[in-house]
C-alpha cells in the first residue's frame, strides 16, 4: 500500500453451514423406479401376495439400494403394533460396575436377534421409573426387562403389566411372573467345594447380617456341600458381619477363635477386609488361612494379593437369558411357562487357597 498505509483486513467470512442431506422418501424411490408410491410401499413392506411383476419389484429394489432409502420405523411400528426395540428399566445397574454386565449381556443378545435396547436407569426414583416405562410403551417395545442391581424380591410396577416383561436379578411371588436370577444355593455349594477340594474340613462361613435371598441361599449351599462331603455342620463356624470391607475386617478376631483352617465369605468386599485383618494378626493367605469370596468383582478379586478364589455372579448371562426368555426362544430358560429360572454361578479359582497339609 502506498504512503505506508496498511491494507484493510479481509472481511470475515460467514461460517458455512453444512448442507443437510435430504432424507430419501417413498416418492423419490417411486420416481426413480417409474412406479407409484403405493407399489414402493408394497415392496418395502414385503407384501409377497401383492400382484407386482418381478421386473417391477426388481426396479424398486434397485432404486432403494441406489438412493439409500430407509423405511420409517415408527410408521411400521404403528402398522404392526410392535417395534424392534426391547426396553430395560433398572434401578442402578448402569452405575454399578459389576452389575453393568446385565446391560452388556442383554444388549448383545437383543442385537443378535435383530432388536435394539432402550435403557432407562432410574436410581430408584419411582416417578422416573413410571415415565420410563410409559415412554417404552409408547414406542411399542417388544417387551421390557425390569432389573435390580442386587438380587431381591420386588413389587411389579402397575404399568409394567401393560407389556410382556421379564424380571432380571429380581423376582416376584406373583403367579406367572417370569424371572431370571443367580442360583445362590449352587454358588454357595461351589464356594465351599473349592475349599473342600483342597482338603479343608474345618471351614468357616462369614455370612451377611442383611436379610436377602443371597444370605439364605449361600448358607444353604454351604451346608449342602458339607453334608455331601460327610463333614458335620458346626453352627459355631457360621459368623455374621455387615457385608462390606469393614465387616470382614471386624470379623477377623472372632473367626480366629473358631479354629478354622479356611473361610468362605459372603462377598469379595468382606474377603478384602478379612485379608487386612489376617495380616494384622501376622497370618498369611493361604498358608495360615485359605479364603474364598463371592461375586468375582474384578476390581477386587483379581487384584488382591494373593488373588482371591471366588464365585462369579453371572450378570452378563442374566441379561442375555432375560432377552431369550422375553423372546421365548427355543431353549430359553422358562420357555412357555412362568416361574423363576436360576442361572449358574461359576467358580473362579485363584491362589488364595492351597491344599491343607494332612496329619
Can you characterise this structure?
This protein is of the alpha/beta class and 359 residues long. It folds into 3 domains: 26-71, lambda repressor-like DNA-binding domains (434 Repressor (Amino-terminal Domain)), CATH 1.10.260.40; 85-182 and 316-343, Rossmann fold, CATH 3.40.50.2300; 184-314, Rossmann fold. It contains 13 helices and 12 strands. α1 (26-33) packs across α2 (37-44), α1 crosses α3 (54-67) and α7 crosses α8 (213-228). The longest helix has 16 residues, at 213-228. It is elongated. Residues 1-18 have a biased composition (Low complexity). Residues 1-21 are annotated as: Disordered.
Label this structure with key terms.
359 residues; alpha/beta; 434 Repressor (Amino-terminal Domain); Rossmann fold; six-stranded parallel β-sheet; 16% strand; elongated; transcription regulation; DNA-binding
Task: Kindly report the CATH topology of the largest domain.
Answer: Rossmann fold
Radius of gyration: 30 Å
How many domain modules? 3
> Can you tell me the CATH class of the largest domain?
Alpha Beta
Helix content: 25-40%
In short:
This protein has helices at residues 26-33, 37-44, 54-67, 73-80, 101-112, 126-138, 184-197, 213-228, 245-250, 252-256, 268-280, 298-301, 315-327, and strands at residues 85-90, 116-121, 144-153, 165-171, 179-182, 203-208, 238-241, 262-265, 290-292, 310-311, 340-343, 347-348. The longest helix has 16 residues, at 213-228.
Amino acid at each position: 500500500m502506498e504512503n505506508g498505509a496498511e491494507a484493510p483486513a479481509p472481511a470475515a467470512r460467514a461460517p458455512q453451514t453444512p448442507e443437510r442431506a435430504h432424507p430419501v422418501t417413498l416418492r423419490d424411490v417411486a420416481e426413480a423406479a417409474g412406479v407409484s408410491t403405493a407399489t414402493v410401499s408394497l415392496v418395502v413392506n414385503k407384501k409377497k401376495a401383492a400382484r407386482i411383476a418381478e421386473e417391477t419389484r426388481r426396479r424398486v429394489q434397485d432404486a432403494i439400494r441406489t438412493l439409500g432409502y430407509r423405511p420409517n420405523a415408527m410408521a411400521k411400528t404403528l402398522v404392526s403394533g410392535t417395534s424392534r426395540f426391547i426396553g430395560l428399566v433398572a434401578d442402578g445397574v448402569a452405575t454399578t460396575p459389576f452389575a453393568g454386565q446385565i446391560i452388556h449381556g442383554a444388549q448383545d443378545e437383543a442385537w443378535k436377534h435383530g432388536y435394539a435396547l432402550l435403557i432407562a436407569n432410574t436410581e430408584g426414583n419411582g416417578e422416573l421409573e413410571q415415565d420410563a416405562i410409559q415412554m417404552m410403551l409408547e414406542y411399542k417395545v417388544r417387551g421390557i426387562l425390569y432389573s435390580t442391581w442386587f438380587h431381591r424380591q420386588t413389587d411389579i410396577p402397575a404399568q409394567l403389566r401393560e407389556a410382556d416383561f421379564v424380571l432380571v436379578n429380581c423376582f416376584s411371588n406373583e403367579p406367572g411372573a417370569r424371572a431370571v436370577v443367580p442360583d445362590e444355593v449352587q454358588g454357595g455349594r461351589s464356594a465351599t467345594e473349592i475349599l473342600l477340594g483342597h482338603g479343608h474340613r474345618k471351614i468357616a462361613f462369614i455370612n451377611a447380617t442383611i436379610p436377602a435371598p443371597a444370605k439364605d441361599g449361600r448358607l444353604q449351599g454351604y451346608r449342602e456341600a458339607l453334608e455331601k462331603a460327610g463333614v458335620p455342620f458346626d453352627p459355631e463356624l457360621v459368623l455374621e458381619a455387615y457385608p462390606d470391607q469393614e465387616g470382614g475386617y471386624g470379623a477377623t478376631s472372632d473367626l480366629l477363635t473358631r479354629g478354622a483352617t479356611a473361610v468362605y465369605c459372603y462377598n469379595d468386599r468382606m474377603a478384602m477386609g478379612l485379608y487386612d485383618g489376617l495380616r494384622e494378626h501376622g497370618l498369611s493367605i493361604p498358608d495360615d488361612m485359605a479364603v474364598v469370596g463371592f461375586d468375582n468383582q474384578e476390581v477386587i478379586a483379581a487384584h488382591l494379593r494373593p488373588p482371591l478364589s471366588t464365585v462369579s455372579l453371572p450378570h452378563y448371562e442374566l441379561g442375555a437369558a432375560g432377552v431369550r426368555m422375553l423372546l421365548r426362544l427355543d431353549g430359553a430358560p422358562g420357555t412357555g411357562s412362568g416361574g423363576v429360572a436360576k442361572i449358574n454361578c461359576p467358580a473362579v479359582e485363584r491362589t488364595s487357597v492351597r491344599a491343607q497339609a494332612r496329619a
